[in-house]
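[recover] target loaded
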């Protein structure tokens, strides 16, 4: 059974000041346009997700809404721990996903989201820019089995 994890960095966001300012940063007009274009690509691919995990920060909430518009998403969860998370925390979040979910979209932040991508696929030349997503396949039956280098990068979209 193949598990699929799509890691996405939130869209281009406004500049924020301080911690509270960072949490409430909104997507820019340019960021919205890019996410709408990516949404059209996903619609053409007939993308669907069993589970959408997202940080509670405004820009990730907006990104998740724009990217999943008119796509089939079975369940959405706001996961507080995704905000300002380390690779270890993000890995743990994914490893604890119930195995009934086979195709997950995780919308988060750098540096954690790109660092998790590098960790999972073993390629150190990848960094997600705002609004980019990377699709990773795991030839594993359970999410708790994913580990360093256990994923295969299928595609990067922006």
């Amino acid at each position: 059974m193949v598990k699929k994890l799509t890691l996405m960095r939130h869209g281009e966001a406004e500049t924020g000041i301080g911690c509270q300012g960072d949490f409430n940063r909104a997507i820019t007009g340019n960021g919205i346009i890019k996410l709408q274009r990516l949404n059209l690509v996903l619609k053409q691919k007939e993308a669907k997700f069993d589970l959408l995990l997202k940080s509670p920060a405004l820009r990730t909430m907006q990104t998740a809404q724009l990217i999943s518009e008119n796509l089939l998403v079975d369940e959405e969860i706001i996961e507080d721990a995704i905000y300002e998370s380390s690779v270890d925390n993000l890995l743990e979040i994914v490893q604890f996903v119930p195995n009934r979910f086979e195709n997950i979209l995780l919308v988060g932040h750098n540096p954690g989201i790109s660092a998790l991508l590098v960790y999972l696929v073993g390629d150190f030349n990848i960094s997600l820019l705002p609004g980019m997503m990377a699709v990773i396949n795991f030839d594993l039956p359970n999410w708790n089995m994913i580990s360093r280098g256990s994923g295969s990068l299928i595609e990067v979209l922006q």
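[recover] notes: The two ends are 27 Å apart (CA to CA).
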